[in-house]
Amino acid sequence: MSKHVFIINVDRCIGCHACSLACRLATYQEGKDSFCSVLELNSEKEKRTIWLPYVCLQVGDKACGPEDEVPPCVKACPVSALIYGDSERKEIKEYIENGKAVRMPYIGDYPRTYYMGKMPDDVAKELPDPRNVIPKKYMPLTKLPP
Q: Who contacts 140 (Cβ-Cβ below 8 Å, separation ≥6)?
């Protein structure tokens, strides 16, 4: 059985939220919670903002269909900041084995989400628990808050 993983390139992410919108649309049609959220994190040390998508594999299984299908969040990203695929795929395996991809906070029996790029130390030390960020609860349109 394959182990599919996400690699998030923080140097590429521009904080557009296309991934989280695509996830919300895909899961909403199924009446499910949304499992992608883009965090805006500020580095005091480097005086810059980092955008970091948190994705479904940090807290469970893929939320939007068969494991071997490319998720809507990956398809929607205009800057290719998200990579998804089998951990044995050559490109992904090399990123992980060469230390270019570093483990993200995750819950579960094995790491399935990694990041690559320059993550400031002060931001990396303060990443929130993914369970506090995702999922975003499904809310039917007929039950919008007042």
A: 31
